[in-house]
């Protein structure tokens, strides 16, 4: 991610210093940048002269003092809190007080990192999606300590670099993972309970307009990655639905991590194709496949409305995040297609069946369903948030 982020800034015309403390790690980063720019030339995204100019804008160092003159620094070390805090401490000692300090964490507390510096107001989260040079979305995360000017500066810089930004506050999973991962866990739970076969689950969600079925997507992402995010979500919410389903835990413990290990919910041949293995769970004795896709889609939409209702993010940014971060349909388009009243009725059933506090219908969903003209109320919500969201969170 670090070399990819360096490439993003260098493509935008910035002078970049790439820092790694170990010379061999620095060499690997340099090689990754060279390989990425070479691929861009091969694909016609960059000409040879542009590639040469890009790499010339990047210098490399192993001493943090080389960053002293930088006015924007993005930390992209592994997701280990102690390691990130140590890096922030070193950066804090050499950067000017006005420098913007950003962390590329995907789920760790930005607030805790900011609190350990002498410039907490100048620390923001900037969650790039992988690969950074290609993926257009960046989540910009503010904390209770953030200077609004620093958040606005981060968004402006990233958008000048051609990225699309969405704003959110500092909570586990931010926007995209906080919405996507519980949906994936719910799908895994449905399969584990034998409510539907893996093929029925995945086919139903693809037919509903999603680019990939949730079980196939879990295999692609890696069960270890999803498992870790779920534990972070559960650590913050305490909700049972954010605990990894037991089958997912068993897959991780057994080293069946999905495509990267050759087996997960599906089994993969050497060429990456799916084999005809029978799967992990016997065919359901009493199928509930007829309840799909709404059975998985409605709780996800309720999560979206809960998030927007507490002003954690805007409707426009939730739409943008899921469309660009996951290539999923915009959730508020899905809500409009189903209708707030239909979604509310189905979510009330889910809550009655599970008694999970996190499945309680969102107050915003209840308000939309009760409106004299739900379509007009939904349009007003999306339009208001679209304008308000550009300056960050209210």
TrEMBL record:
<feature type="domain" description="3-hydroxyacyl-CoA dehydrogenase NAD binding">
    <location>
        <begin position="1"/>
        <end position="170"/>
    </location>
</feature>
<dbReference type="GO" id="GO:0006635">
    <property type="term" value="P:fatty acid beta-oxidation"/>
</dbReference>
<dbReference type="InterPro" id="IPR036291">
    <property type="entry name" value="NAD(P)-bd_dom_sf"/>
</dbReference>
<dbReference type="GO" id="GO:0070403">
    <property type="term" value="F:NAD+ binding"/>
</dbReference>
<dbReference type="Pfam" id="PF00725">
    <property type="entry name" value="3HCDH"/>
</dbReference>
<comment type="similarity">
    <text>Belongs to the 3-hydroxyacyl-CoA dehydrogenase family.</text>
</comment>
<protein>
    <submittedName>
        <fullName>3-hydroxybutyryl-CoA dehydrogenase</fullName>
    </submittedName>
</protein>
<comment type="pathway">
    <text>Lipid metabolism; butanoate metabolism.</text>
</comment>
<dbReference type="Pfam" id="PF02737">
    <property type="entry name" value="3HCDH_N"/>
</dbReference>
<dbReference type="InterPro" id="IPR006108">
    <property type="entry name" value="3HC_DH_C"/>
</dbReference>
<feature type="domain" description="3-hydroxyacyl-CoA dehydrogenase C-terminal">
    <location>
        <begin position="173"/>
        <end position="268"/>
    </location>
</feature>
<dbReference type="GO" id="GO:0008691">
    <property type="term" value="F:3-hydroxybutyryl-CoA dehydrogenase activity"/>
</dbReference>
<dbReference type="InterPro" id="IPR008927">
    <property type="entry name" value="6-PGluconate_DH-like_C_sf"/>
</dbReference>
<dbReference type="InterPro" id="IPR013328">
    <property type="entry name" value="6PGD_dom2"/>
</dbReference>
<dbReference type="InterPro" id="IPR006176">
    <property type="entry name" value="3-OHacyl-CoA_DH_NAD-bd"/>
</dbReference>
<keyword id="KW-0560">Oxidoreductase</keyword>
